[in-house]
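Re: export button greyed out
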Amino acid sequence: MKRSSAVIILLNLLLLLIYFNWNVFEKEKTLKQGKLVLLELAPVDPRSLMQGDYMRLSYSLVQNISPHKLPKRGYCVVRLDGHQVAKKVRFQQHKLPLHEGEYLIKYFYNDFIIDLGAGSYFFEEGTQAKYVNAKYGGVRIDNEGNSVLTGLYDKSYNLIK
Amino acid sequence: MKLQSITRDVIHTISRYSNWKPAGIEQSFREHKIYSDRSMWLRFIDVCLLCLGVVFTVAGIIFFFAYNWQDMHKFLKLGLIQGLLIAAIALVVFSRFDVFVKNCILCGASFLTGALFSVYGQIYQTGANAYDFFLGWTVFITLWAVVSRFAPLWLLLISLVDVTIMLYANQVARGWSAPLLFCILFVVNTGCLIGFMRFERLNTPRWFLKILAISAVCWSTISIVAGIGTQYSLVWWISLAIVTVMYAAGIVYSFKSRTIFYLLIIPLSVIIIVSALLVETGDQHLTSMLLIVSAFIVSSITVLITQLIRLNKTWNGE
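Workaround output, generated via the alternate export path:
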């Protein structure tokens, strides 16, 4: 092994670890400090609901909209009611304008469906019974509109454990 | 006429037309390494066991995570994979194994990098950004592939580049037509192929070049066929021009260097494209057109095969 190759291999590993852990750190920050927002789940086709150990999620926030002219990546602006449940205000391409009490959630749109990030929730096999009652998906969002799915909530706004 | 390498066929032919004794024939088989001797077998077993070991190790790691998913803290999962990655790279850099073993370990590390990104994606439920995942994976194994000069790792890298380009077209860029996307893939893969052929000192194995060539020709065929029957856009004409020039260059190169391989895959691609054109033009009288297309395919393949056999005889004297 030539010295230069060894240096390059190690340097690459170092960069990879730095980049990766910085990403993990950012996600953790969002989980700790982000605003908790509940997104109402739309019913999904039950046949695709339980495939092994995950559940497909679909949010009623972005159902029944036929966006023909939406940019591929942008922001969904929401307001929260008393139970932290999000109500859609509008879609926009950039972070501004943003008024008092409005929050941003990044979306991603691929000509058919609008995706708010978490499209599925993973859980242990055999525990699906308790997730049948899920009515909301809980996400934590930061100021950039990045969201991290934290768990599923039932109709009385309690986290399903 | 270059001097022929002694192959099994040559020895057979000579023995048939001479009074060569069986013992002598066996002797020459051994001398020309047609019969594998003990050291070659040992080397073969070595390589086999090593490759199996790497594959089983990586698979074992992935299954371990799948099985213990719920019972492990997320930092433990991420930490474990990163620890394994560090250990693998430490082996590559600081151990005294030979280069081939080190390269196999580096391949394993490259797959682990993918596992790392996918575990991250699962823990933080990052959802649909498959493009970001593949881009990260591609970027972070590029340098390893460049340094190692190891064909399997190059193959992994180029496959990842192709997948990343496709996902970019799907998820980020808007309105890339199929001819455009596959033309880009064709140019990228052909560029890699020419690059590897130019640098002889990389001494890339022939199977790797062949896989690259096949993938490039697949992309070009899809690019042209996908644009047939829609409105012929400017992109399609540009794609057609690029593909035509590259095919012509490939054929010229084949005749100069006396390689049969490109003379097989390029005409095959052309036959597919012409068939698609025929089907498209004859959509009014479909049944008769299908007959014509079938006849065209049968006759053109026949001509191609007979010509290739003839060329092979003159070039390789078999």
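Residues 3-33 of chain A form the longest helix (31 residues). The button fix ships in the next patch.
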